[in-house]
Protein 1
Amino acid sequence: MAKAGFRGGVHPPTHKDVTSASATHRAPIPARLVLPMSQHLGAPCTPLVAAGDRVLRGQPIGDVEAMVSAPVHSPVAGEVAAVTSRRTITGNSVTAVEIVPDPEQDFDTFEKIDPVDNVVTLVRSAGIVGMGGAAFPAHVKLTPPKDATIETVILNGCECEPYLTCDHRTMLERASRVVEGSRIIARTVGARRIVIGIEDNKPDAILAVREAADTDIEVLSLQTSYPQGAEKQLIWAVMAKEVPHGKLPSAAGALVHNVGTAAAIADAVLDRRPLMERVVTVSGMVARPGNYLTLLGTSVQDLLDAAGGFTGEVGRVIAGGPMTGMPVVDFSVPVVKGTSGVVALAPGDLPPAVHGDQPCIRCGRCSDACPMLLEPFALGIRANRLDWDGCDSYHGLDCIECGCCSYVCPTHRPLVQLIRRAKHALLERGARS
Amino acid sequence: MTVSQDSVRMSVAASPHVAAKENVTHIMLWVVGALAPAALWGVWNMGVVAAVLLVSCIGSCLGTEALWNYLAKRPQTLLDGSALVTGLLLAMALPPRTPWWIGVAGGIVAIALAKMIFGGLGWNLFNPALVGRAIVSISWAGVLAESSVPGGWFAGLDMPGTGNFDAISGATRLALAAADRAAGGAYAYDMQAQYGPLLTRNLSGCLGEVSGGLLILGGLVLILKGIIDWRIPAGYIGTVALLSWAFGSDPVFNVLAGGVLLGAFFMATDYVTSPMTKTGRLIFACGCGLINVVGRFFGPMPESTTFAILFMNGFVPLIDRSLRPRTFGWGSRRG
């Protein structure tokens, strides 16, 4: 039987063996932590502390009444140095709480979140967001629309982005928490089936999770192909169902959570532990590539220093993976809940710089690679002309921005970048009308 | 070592931050490499005149593109390799003894009138090399007909067909087969006996037709490298074989003779002038094969490959519009 997968996709060199074999270890305590009040999609938090306040590890330092939001907790015991506006990875400036940690930290103790029976409330109180990178508040996904029936909970253990191995290590080192998290999620939404999908380039993770799971959970080995971990592609691979255009996965009876998020949910429910740290893969041109258990708010600079600094010329530092990650322009920006990796790329790793409009040679590689079965070449040409109607008619809004089209283009046309721009224009226009 | 942000000169761009290694120049150079054995074998057998033709076609294509870019104040595009491929294909599609000035004229037409005037690489509707060939073959039909006749150096060397009949006419094997068919089989032309020379060393016809075997080899390399879609040569050659057989002719002979191999592997597979979808490519290829065979058996001249592909080039926008892929999440679920 052919292994479950999806149509399209690309196979960039994974560079995962650099970090996948070494155990996660804790990054040093930085001199100062910067905790943005917006580490998630949705309403930013309001600071609950002021400069000079003592804070405890696990103490909430930011929260807001809104449904789509997630509170922020202090990852350390220490003192609030300032509440100021700070730049984040996205380039935006947001309100942030700066904390100077005490030199001695007891990482085993923390302020527990309030005990309640309701999993959704617990998950919200713990400040958990999608840890695969999307940073969508987890408790919102645990509250599916009233008319939707969730048949299947899928845990995303694909980790299809090159370089990143933080999910891989989490599955190896915290398999029982991943499994327990999936059960909690399934119970909460009333799903009968639990599937943990893992790409077949991580056989040890598949084995570890299978061992931790019981017969109630299917651990599915999936084709190694980028973007196997994209939500719609994963649902297709697991359930052979397409999420209809403009609908949520619940329309296909599915709920997808990242394996790291599931482990964090288990921690919240079983230990009443808030989200204070996460595993970050530091890889590429660094002396000690590996997976670092990183306090939220640690700067990219501190993390790069922890990894021993650069080993050669670096052309770009990426937060996240190289296919969808953000370039880091300012190393003082902090690691946040959705930061899965910090990758230093050599100039030669980067796509060649192109000048002016490159021709489309109609080779069809972008169409073959598009996991949404779009025609990126046609979208690119129309977006370039600012023909938003044309982009709409070619279903530009269905683009998931995985970057496969730009990756394969032999003339290096910035296809996904053009489509992103078109989506932006179309959404703006839709919001206006 | 402590990282200093100032120590690195960062470039910033939106994701993705990596790209596949294969670029347009690599692709074009693979095509050149796949054609090279057949071209060199052609020159080896046809002599200096063939080399002169290659140089004049390629030089004319490169020169025309460079001059156009210069006059239009566009960035130079010679390094993408597409003009080199056009020049090479044009030479391969002409009789080896074509005068050099016809090669130059063909190159100018191919690049200026079939490619650059549409906006350069990617924007042309018709295959530039075939437009060049079509225009010169109409403009200097007489000269080109004579050019097919092998000259003095090769007289008596492996003349096509059997005996004097061919030596006198000097016609291509396709023309001989057509004459035989017109005469109701009176010449008893043995098509199966032509397989060997057509595959290895055929001295009547275009420069690119000297060795069908080397063309097939080059085409297979491009398919295995993922540079061309197998559907186009398969659909094209399959249709030619099937229809030739249906019309009572030898299918293998009809695939090997004339421009079918060069057309199916190297001309119809041109990205710019062939459809974007897999189904579209199959339809396009079958259309090429159909018109090629119909032209060969019922048209005024047996060498109909050029016009078959050009004709189908014109249908590419229609094919692409009609066969747009169904976007994921739209319409019926599959599986």
Protein 2
Amino acid sequence: MMAVMPRRAGAPGSAPPDDRDLDLAALHRAHYRELVKLASLLVADVGRCEELVQEAFAKVAARPGAVDDPAKAPAYLRSAVLNGARSMRRRRDPVPRLRSVGATLPGPERPDDAAGRHDDAGAVLDALRSLPHRQQEVLVLRYWLDLPESEIAATLGISGGTVKTHASRGLAALATRLEDRR
Amino acid sequence: MNDPTSDDELPADERRATEALLRASLAARADSVEPADPEAAVGAALASAGTTGRRRRLVFSAAAAVVVIAVVAAAVALGGDDDPGETELATGPSTTLAGPPLAPGEVAIWPLAASSRTFDDPVDVATSFFNDYVGIDGSCSTGLPGTSSDVFEVQCGPSDGSTTLVHVRQDGLAWVVTGAEATDGLDLVEPTLGSLVVNEFAVDVANPQRPSSTVDVRSVVDGVVVDSAEVPEGGGGATLRLPEGTVGQYVVVVSDGSQAEAIVIEVGTPEQVAEDAIWPLPTMSVAYDDPEAAAEAFLAGFAGIEGGGCQTAPAGEVAEVPCAAPCPVDVPCGDTTIVRVRHDPNGWVVLGSDSTAWSVANPAAGATVGADIAVEVLGVDLALTLRAEVRPIGTGPGSAPTVDTTTIPLDPDGGWHLVLGAADGPSVLLVTDGTTVTARRIVIDSVGVPSETTTTTTGPTDDGVPGWPGLTSRAFDDPQSAALAFADDVLDFADPTPGETADAGTDATIQVDNRPGGQATSLQLHDTGEARGWVVVGVTSTQGSIDGVSRDGENVSVTGQAIAFEATVNVRLVAVDGTVLGETTTSSGISGELGPFAAVVHQDLAFDGPVYVQVAEGDASGEGRFSWAAWALVDA
């Protein structure tokens, strides 16, 4: 029994919707680009990243009650984008994610292929995207957004200890895969 | 590898270098991405609407952005008085654009499949549903965007102000209703959306706002009411029944005359239901985005096991997620719980779990049992205490009457009875040792199944040969897994790599390198029987050997020959379960030649059982603790 849909705004047991302090326009202006860039670190196709971010804003627009504190709206949006990216990668990644060392993403997903270049950044991103999804997300939040451990934990809905574990394992696995590519 | 994370630590300089490279690469990638102006993208997408799949996807994406912009604009225009419930929206994307087909698991309940009616407007279909299907006189006038651009929630209600959100979506060119949700108290608590139930199932309704509320179950195809019940004033439960053998999708509708809820459920056979999810509980408003999160939440929330980390599972609709048992500091452990999960339309759910430390032989998953259950567990260490209980399906620890809880040290016969006093029906059998858990669905039928009269007593066998992992709850079914676990957990090799294997019935020798192409250590293994499985009984290496061992009280003298980096070897006293009891270092041969060594190592910790002396060379790379090892028995 049973997956249960999250309570909708206005549903019994949920907080009444109150978005008076949630300035969606300002939120959109302030965070749209950053969120697309965030998604682009995990999903190669920038067009799809833009779709993910649009859908994240649509969710906030549809469910203003879900963000009870406007200050938490950026974190909520980040979570929505990461969840969307994870779902998208699962749909497009039917093979087990326990990839062999040195595995790369399918050709069409790699912008570097189109450009014909394999620089260090491209190799690092390839290696990063071959890691388990949670490790990818923790590493991106930590080393691109420089979020503290507590914020990463809140964004991903996991414990601080789990963040540490994913960060440690992810970094070690990344180093190994980069070493194997040399 | 006593610290679960220590094996993941990079040397400091390598970690800093990797961090710097990662930061630079992420920044370079982010800097290279220039998102399109969202409003310009919307215009471009609309202008090129409609002929290819890619274009269509852009249109829907653009529509989502239009929704954002529309809501933003409305919010700005209303100057703060921006209750989304009062925001008038267009009724969705242009009705000339076709929506995607319904997603798997999504069911149209209105118009009826048997009907030829079609609706090209979301408010129209919601109004028709509210009046004709639910049977409440009222109107629908506004809509809110749902989870995507082609999904809307249309507000419907009579003149008394009660509101029902009717979920509509575009299916191709037509609009259909997929469900309804009351917003003024009325709540269909059980069953929940997507539940799999047998043909006779309980319903629970909370907070009806009027007397004479009803709940019914209807055919999806023609809307015929198959069974119905009145809901007591103030809310309560009832039982709905479909003809025996009924399977398929049905709609449960509850109405108090002014508002309504409607959900689709699945009716299945008892066997199917027995395989269905046990987590999250029906009372939980939660959906899990990934299998690891579902598994971790299940272990903590359902089994009471905190601190177990779950690994990334293979992608797919179903998966088995290995979750490590929480390990006490400095105590090697490797037991896991395999949590079986499935991806449902609303997220990942848990179907059950199995402990790898022992196995529950009976009852089997999905078994129908009487009120007197014979629980049979195999492969349990005699020192281990197990707890078993049976919970009615849908209830968690402490949230519902616990049927029976039995805590006993398992005797060598390996089984016990649970005598239950619970109502018949689907239940969950849970057996746990506190760090791992087996949870499986069973069906209790006290009438149809006679009580067990004898306990099954299949006891685990054990030939008594000592060896790692000792008398713990770990048991290995094959020598390879035992060898690799030993190399990983006790020798702490950087990347244990199996080499040559010689297998002779109940004995085997396996060569394990500390890393691919590294130094070799030979492990001798023995199959002790069903209880403990394969154990490590000997450790040798061409890099070192132990010639003599003698004990004088707490001091153990050891001599031998070894080759080691910088002529230094590590000498340890190790208990049969891997616990380090004492440690020292000494000098040995160098330059590729065996040289003699001698050491006296003090036993700091007492241990009642076999104790070994280990001679080993430290791993110069720092990635592992040792690069090779040799053992000799000190105390049997």
Protein 3
Amino acid sequence: MTRANTMPEHKIVFTGTPGAGKTTAIAALSDIAPTVTEVRNSDPTLGKAFTTVGLDYGQVDLGDGQRVHLYGTPGQQRFEFMWKILASRALGLVILIDNSRPHPLQDLAVYLDAYADLLPHMAFAIGAGRTLECPLPTIDEYVDALSHRGLVAPVLPVDVRQRDDVLMLVDTLLAQAEIRESTPTT
Amino acid sequence: MVEQQSSEMGLLLQNVSGTDAAKIAAFLRLGTGRLKHTWKIVSDRPPRVLLSGSDFFDTLPGELEGPITALRLVDEKVFDAPAAPGVLSRPLQYDDFISALAQAEPGTDAKPAAPVAGRAAPPAALPHPAGAPRAAFAPPAALSKPSPADGEFVLSRFERFRLRRWPEAALLGRHRYHVRLASFLSTRHLSVDELVGFSNVNAADCTRFLQALGDAGLLDARAEQPTVPAQAAAPAHATAARPATASGSSLFSRLRRRLGME
């Protein structure tokens, strides 16, 4: 067993609707060319030539054998069984929603349902894409959707092609994870 | 006289680029249930709101001496500028714009927006706990709709605070550190000093941000006596170090550094 295999490992998971930019977000952060498992898309409603059917993988090497793994889940709901497996014990979870899809709030609900038992105990954030082209629903409505479930978490408009936007989402995860890892002083 | 005769509210654009004007027109066409009145871009009568894309407001004696609300559209805010009232930043966001109009509608208790952007007033000194303590709360229920805090929100060094709802973009000031501060506060109750310690953001900025959240009714306060981390008990003007759990060699710090976030 190599030294690296004995070191603690950490992962950040990107999930969300097909076409929301999970692969692009991972590529924005990864030290290596992301491993993608894309196939030619057979679903004309997705509006793109290729889509992820397995998972995307990237990594950020911290040196000293430690690295942070970046996983992207397949977006289609038929792969829901993989979503929670990947997110289990993750450092954080980013849920990317494409605001240009017909029912973004319903899309969000699918992911909030799927991760319902994990979300109260883990760092997570919502990234809403294409909000400039499609301003509705508003960020405030996403926040409402979380509030109705008793959740308070970052909700940010993002353009995953902009690395800074992806970093902002990751930064919110790290802040939450840092607090969760710390012990209250009273 | 700037009030409209009907329920239609006028918005006058001054020194706003064609792109921004088109975007504003599109936002108004979209409409929203958050506005009680119909808003229209006007140029032939006194407006309810004047939105300027420059540092100055052009006035017309007898016609446009002072609209009820003046807004400024500016380039993205600089690092530590707080979300100033009456200031919208480019690229203009739908939520921010609609919120600003909603606050300008008749019958809204919100203070009129400042006609010129400026820094928020410096935070008042943190009160000593000798004042009546606020009741301790159970873990906060998420807040469905923002509401003003009960009475004036007074920030105390001897209370802990947690977000009840993720803030609107205008309050976050579109700056990463405000988003980071809000993220810390979304997870559990933190005192001012703990927030300073975790965030590495100076105490004055943390205090100002907490005060803004409290004023917006977004904070749940818990009256308890935190043990102040020694490093975080530095004077308010100093930059506090992170607590031991978040030392410079921690995973979080290393990842932030590695990704260029620090």
